[in-house]
Task: structure prediction
Amino acid sequence: MSVDDLIRQWSECVREAAACGQALCLRGGGTKRFYGRPERGERLDTRACCGIINYEPSELVVTVRAGTPLVELEAALAAQGQMLAFEPPHFGPGATIGGCVAAGLAGPRRAAVGGVRDFILGVRMIDGRGEVLRFGGEVMKNVAGYDVSRVLAGSLGTLGLIVDVSLKVLPKPVAEASLRFEMGEAAALHQLNVWGGRPLPISASVWCDGILELRLSGAAAAVEAAIGRLGGEHIPDAVAEVRWRALREHTDTFFAGAQPSSSQPPLWRLSLPSDALAIELDGAQLVEWGGAQRWLRSGLLPDVIRARVAALGGHATLFRNGVREGAVFHPLTAPMLALQRNLKNAFDPAGVFNPGRLYEGL
Amino acid sequence: MGEQSGMPGFGRTEEDFSRVDVRRLVQALLGVLPAAHVLHDPEDLRPYECDGMAALRQLPLVVVLPDTEAQVVDILKICAGQGVPVVARGAGTGLSGGAQPHRFGVVLSLARLNRIIAIDAHARRAVVQPGVRNLAISEAAAPHGLYYAPDPSSQIACTIGGNVAENSGGVHCLKYGLTIHNLLKVRGVTIHGDIVEFGSLGLDAPGYDLLPLVTGSEGMLAVVTEVTVKLTPKPQLAQCVLAAFDDVVKAGDAVARIIAAGIIPAGLEMMDQPATAAVEEFVHAGYPLDAKAILLCESDGTPEEVAEEVGRVRALLEQSGATEIRVSRDEAERLRFWAGRKAAFPAAGRISPDYYCMDGTIPRKRLGEMLQAIQAMETKYAMRCINVFHAGDGNLHPLILFDANKPGDQHTAEAFGAEILELSVALGGTITGEHGVGIEKINQMCSQFATPEIAAFHRVKAAFDPGGLLNPGKAIPTLNRCAEYGRERMGAGQPVAHPDLPRF
Result:
């Protein structure tokens, strides 16, 4: 079947679902099914709509169909010395770019370069009326109309079915090096913020169990100069590559305890101001993104965790395991929840797409 | 027009607000604001009759100048209660008429909300009120070695609230991003008077990420009352390479070559020969006047990094056939290189009584085509156009030179501009890269978007502002307007420059 036929078929399917009140569960590789609230509805597999539509390395833009495997896209970019700068986690072999956008999750480079939404330039999507809509485009600067495409990042498929997406890509850094320091949590948080205020090419950071690791990326001269300024112990490149990948994919020892089979406490993702002090909650902790993302494995009551994180100016997500039928994402204020409900209704008035995956009623 | 039930503004002509009772409105506003901050005498209203797009003038009924967020809430509740349109305004430097008053509405000036609330150097963020000027943030952050990266050319005057409303860019956004990439949190008030925070002090917020929706929404979704921006460490060094070319297409190729080599310059700007001549006469930057195009390519970072990048850029420019290459030897020379580019608008104003600035963005590789087409249009409309580009991101600022006092010139300039914008869309780009749609490009929205997208935009608007009171008539055309515009264009019988390109 041609892609055009497929899109027509999907539109028809959405229209029928809307007419009879049937929910659709949008799924690509299914690698992030653990995330968000439980799936509901009849499965719509997005993987048939795949392939790179347009890739112009000198324009720094790729347009790709949503069902394209992330590995395939990343390989095509790597062949031209480019990358998805937000380093999306795959969380499994079949991850698709559509799922990556819908989940809105970014990896270790997030604090340095931006998140998924920062690299979205445009989308084509099917809304809850079965209409095919195109927002944004393939150019870097575009302020015509509301920037709907970026809102899809992290919307968990609840606003529409992404058909294809245009993304800004970046050249891979010429040089990278990783460093290791022995440091307590408070000192590490302080130091990360101090370094963040200096023109240093830090592209990733992680603190866990008294060890702070940094990755530097950029021009060879800049990386060399930064190594000289920062000190620390040099981590061999091969070891470092495995380390950052394991961190991104949650396969390292800290996250291993949070895999589905485990009887360990659930895994929380805490989004905080980078300068927020140590959160001081019972459980194991790992700090990323210069202090702006912290992971907590803890059996504490959700309300206790949320209250502490909110007091520090952040929000908490029940990332893996735990009770997923309740509030997985941080509760919204009443006016914000009303806006979000209105927006959901604007795109999906019949509640066809992934109902309840993000919040009850969205 | 499809199903439009229950949605205001859909498929109808623009809302009719003529029944607004100005006396009742002023009375209510005087209940929440000091009399000096409620302007309704025509003389007092005059300074607000237009923004940077001075060709469009309209007096509002009332201008209000709140001092606090609480007053903004009160004003919006009054306007919502009485069904009065509200046009938020910063410094009024916008070029697309986005802050043009509504004849039956209130102009909500945020100029008095102009305090820098906090500069937190450790966390690299600034909390400011919307009326703070863009450059004032960088000045306040400078003692800490930090700055606010987006630098629209009007940065000495434009306010951060206006930057949020337009998602402003600048000459450094290829490397440092647009306004949206440099925001952490925007606090705003909805038309209902609810205070809402978009984004957070962290790097994300729960639920739908509405920060990008509000950013660039031209005051149509909420009124901004506080902005938390990211501050960036100042690069140790910046150096600028100036290259001359005997052919604009070669200059365009040089841009593609630099990007393809994996270099993201801090700035990458281009000017054609007429633009170069105009600015040289004005600022004496020492530009080569015989060149058909000049490129400015800036590198910033550590001294080692800059030396490495400048070396690579120089080699690529040579390979691309540059006829002359100069590297700034010191800060004074770097600023001189930039002085001309930054003075393009005033220089245009010097050689022509009026100019009309366009703002399309196209894929970089179509630059040559666009320039040739603009040349043909100069002949067709018998009007000159000088071209400055943010070449690195494909954002064009053709400046159409005309004389508004000559009968018909204004109209011809508008037609010229409209054709450039429509060609931008046809070449795979957009009608506006950073100046916004406002009222100026409202017709061209109908070229860029089809009916379902326009309808979707109206639904987004209604999700925030069901009564359509925030900046009505801007940014998103009604479907009727698009239908009429389509008929006009088809019926005008004008020769179409590119008959093979898809239209409408």
Observations:
- Chain A touches chain B through 89 residues (CB under 8 Å).
- Chain A is about 30% helix and 25% strand.
